[in-house]
Every structure is written in C-alpha cells, then in structure tokens.
Amino acid sequence: MTLLVAHVSDLHLGAHDPRAAAGLAADVVAARPGLTVVTGDSTMRARPREFRLARQLLDRLPRPLLVVLGNHDVPLWSRRRVLDPYGAYRSGITDELDPVRRVPGLTALGLPSMPRWRWKNGRLTGRQADLAARVLGDAPDGDVRLVAMHHPPGAGWLPGWDRLRRAARPDIVLAGHTHVPRVLPMDDCVIVVAGTATSHRTRGVPHSWSLISVSPAAFAISERYLDDVGWYTARVVDVPRFSAAMS
User: Fold this and answer.
1) What is the pTM of this model?
2) pLDDT in tens, 46-91
3) Three-class SS of residue 239?
4) Is 180 among the domain residues?
5) Per the database record, which ranges form the Calcineurin-like phosphoesterase domain (predicted)?
6) Is 211 part of any domain?
7) Terminal-residue alpha carbon distance, the chain
8) CB 207 within 8 A of CB 179
9) Does residue 160 lie within any of the structural domains?
10) Which residue stretches of 138-218 are H helix?
11) pLDDT tens, 156-212?
C-alpha cells in the first residue's frame, strides 16, 4: 500500500504572497493526500488578523490535518508571550499542541518545538521524548512512525533531538523553518524539510511544498514549486527506508 502525505510549512499569513496563498490549497487537494501536515509558522507575527487568514487557508486543506506551532506563531516579546504564549495559537489555529493522527499504515505525532523563552531556535524536552516514545511505541506493527515539528534537527536548531530519536525511533521527521526544501536521509530515519509555501521569505527558492509517497520499501519526496504558470514538480528524491545516503 502507498500512502501520500502532503507537507506544507511557513505560510506566514500576514506577510504572504497572495498568488501562492490563493493556489496552494487547490494544488494540495489535487494530490489527494491521506494526511496533510503543516509544520509551523502559520502566521507572521501571531496577530489576530493573521490567525484569521491562516485559519481560512487551513480550512481549505485536505483532512485529516495535523498542524504544529512555529516560532512565528508565538507573540514577540510582550506580556502575552510571558503570561500566555500559546493562547492566540490555541484559539486561532488549534487547541492541540501535541496532535496525534492515525491513518492506515501511519502514526503521526506533532510537537511544539518552540518554547516561549527561546526566540528563533527550538528545543525538545524530556517530556516530549517520553510522549513520542509512548505514541510511536503504540503504533500498529508495520506502521510508518512520523514526527512533525517546526525546527529541523541539526545545526544547533534543536537541542533534545538525540534523546527523542533514541527514545521514539521515528521513521520520518517533517520540519520547516529554514525556508529551503531538503531531504536528509540518516541511518535510521529520513528528515524532510519543507520550503516556503506562501511567505515572502523564499530564500532564493520558489514557493514550494512537498508530497511524500510512503511505501513499505521507500519514501519518494516530490517537491512542488510555483512558477508563472502554476505549480509543478521540480524534483523527486527517492529514499530507501533507513538509507544512510545524503541528498
């Protein structure tokens, strides 16, 4: 059985390209994914209007939908950040900070990698590692075990990753934050970093999202880019399960 997972990140509603935002949902819907994952930064500055815009776009994406918190979804330094850092996100996007989605053949867990005391880089806690171990440990035999978070492991962005990796042993990790799509196969899992879906922050790469085909033997990651004509597949990266090759 082959399962399709749509991976979208870095919407930054409020500082977005209207054309990219207008066409994104239709392109994702056309792919008919079995699960849609949004790895954070639904808004630019966690303002009420931005959460409303984000909610409108998220409502057009295919279900089931798993959304995680990004660093831009937490208010800038203010009373709100200290007293209720996730309040606006909970009311505007979802009350689930650790969402779990189970579809045939896959168990997925989302984690907020943005604590209120950090600004750009993330962190995973021991509690989150224990939670991931429980959720993924309860996955049916043969299920692909997926973790979604905003910050990708590596380059100092995510202290605590090694503990979670050893405890939970995910097969695939989805992240965003860097605005550049990448596929990073490791010896025991593959990390898929989505590019910028609708934000003006494209970092020299067109607006993009990733479609992941999951089969028993491999992951195939198709990167969908936006040009003047519309969305198209720019490249496909095939990763045998548990490959140590780098891409």
Assistant:
1) 0.94
2) 999 999 999 999 999 999 999 999 999 998 866 676 678 899 999 9
3) strand
4) yes
5) 5-181
6) yes
7) 25
8) no
9) yes
10) 161-168
11) 668 999 999 999 999 999 999 999 999 999 888 999 999 999 999 999 999 999 999
CATH number for 47? 3.60.21.10
Q: Does 246 reside within a domain?
A: no
- The answer to whether 172 and 198 have CB atoms below 8 angstroms apart is no
DSSP-assigned states of every residue in 65-111 = EEE---GGGS-SSSHHHHH-TTHHHHHHT-S-SS-EEEETTEEEEE-
Helical H runs in 98-157? 126-137
Number of domain units in the chain? 1
Q: How many helices (H) and strands (E) does the chain have?
A: 6, 12
Residue pointed to by tokens 């550049």: 180
Per-residue pLDDT, 77 = 66
Helix, strand, coil percentages in the chain from 3-state DSSP, rounded to 5? 25, 30, 50
Looking at residue 64, its amino acid is P
* Spatial distance between the Cα atoms of 97 and 208, rounded to a whole number of angstroms: 25
